[in-house]
Amino acid sequence: MANLVALPYDVLLLIVAKVLPLYESNSPITHFNQPRLKFLWPLSLTCHLLHSVCSNWLFSSYRLLFRVSALRAKYNPPPTLDDDNGQACLTLTEWEEAAMLTRVAHFASKARFARELCIEDYGQSEDLPAFPPSFQVHLAELLKGLGGRLQTVYFKGDGFPGRLHSTLWATLRKLAIRTMSLEGVLPPLGGAERMDCVETLHLEWCEDNAAFLQLCNPTELELRYTYPHSNPTEDPPLLKLDFDSLQRATITYLLSNEQITRGGVLFDMSKIPLDASFEIVFKVPCHFKFQLPVVLQNTQLMVAKAFTEDPGCYNLFLSPGCDIVVVRGDANTREKLEMGFQALCWASESSPATVEDTPKYEV
């Protein structure tokens, strides 16, 4: 009589795929919700065959962590590994070559299952910035053997900025990565070729990362725009979107009081396709409820001057969280109205908009 492990590999995959929805939530498998797959770990330890089967889900999203951020290390110290003498020999706050190679080796053993790779390194020194070049070359050699299975790559690091090595960039381009996300400053080196295979691009917008907008042609774009608080008198860079294939764009702008007062042109949306929809969320810096009406009025005046083209063709909303939202697209407009957003009129200096009914605001 045939037992479970005697079944063909494809049949075992189908069995686990049928059982998985009974235990998982409706959210997709990402490195943010791996704990919901914890019931697969005991099954994966049954034998080598079932371990290989379960690894298709357990390691489909792989988190490759090298150094944690200084803030996290301060308030939530990472674990350490002691040697035979009881002395700490490995931490997650410093760059240890042997430790990094060990983590890369573990990823190499599971790389054939990875569809989504999250690489985190919060380097804090100029000598060893985030994502050292030697490590990037080593990782590029490893990724070359993955074929077309890897679809999404995340780079996370808010420490000392680094540079995306040309070898790693060429490897990702050859793998035809569909989704790329970058949190931090990691611009590619000069001479990088275009990567038109990227369909979804998530980017921390700054002048150093502007090269990504020149090298990619995504259909979906998500940007996080932060005003340069280090030099409030400096004009922020103009964000010009010129993608012929763009279908949807979402931009989150973290405003400061200096930016609201100074104003300036921030966006050029005149070149994106007419059928493309976009949404720009201006995060209003207000900490006290009594200040909200004045801050909202000043923000509306600033937003009205933030575009190179006439903003009258766009819709303006006030979110329940008191953020100013600029929307284009019928579907986006209907969605905002259904979510309880308040429609606003475009303001000008001659006829400033007022908020008659101040929304609920939690201090």
Write up what this structure looks like.
With 363 residues, the chain is an alpha/beta fold. It has three domains: 1-58, no CATH class; 61-218, no CATH class; 227-363, no CATH class. Helix content is 28%, strand content 20%. The strands form three sheets. An eleven-stranded mixed β-sheet has the order 1-4-5-6-7-8-10-12-14-13-15, with helices on both faces. A two-stranded antiparallel sheet has the order 2-3. A two-stranded parallel sheet has the order 9-11. Strand 7, helix 8 (211-215) and strand 8 (220-226) form a beta-alpha-beta unit. Helix 1 (9-19) crosses helix 3 (48-58) and helix 6 packs parallel to helix 7 (166-174). The longest helix has 14 residues, at 97-110.
